[in-house]
Amino acid sequence: MTLESDEKTPLHSGQEASGPRYTLEELKEHAEHLFSVKVEVLAGAFFGTQDKLFTVAEAHTKIEQFMKAKVD
């Protein structure tokens, strides 16, 4: 996966979520660089969605939701 300059900064809510789509494995390879989280956090956020493609912005949003989720 080659990162383009506009993908190095995660998009936040309200910004457009279009762009190239990547597999979960490709995102895992760059988890710390793109999202400042370990691969384990990305795996938890995407549990059950292994066969789909995601933009960097979609992945960032999913990780934020995972990190803010309540733990019982």
Describe it:
The chain has 72 residues and is mainly α. Helices cover 43% and strands 6% of the residues. It starts with 21 loop residues before the first strand and ends with a helix.
Strand order of the largest sheet: 1-2
Helix content: 40-55%
Radius of gyration: 12 Å
Main β sheet profile: 2 strands, antiparallel
Which structural category do the helix and sheet elements fall into? mainly alpha
Classify the beta-strand content into a percent band.
5-15%
Structural features:
mainly alpha; two-stranded antiparallel ribbon; globular
What's the layout of helices and strands?
Layout: E1 22-23, H1 24-29, H2 31-35, H3 39-45, E2 53-54, H4 56-68
Antiparallel strand pairs: 1-2
Brief summary:
This protein is mostly helical and 72 residues long.
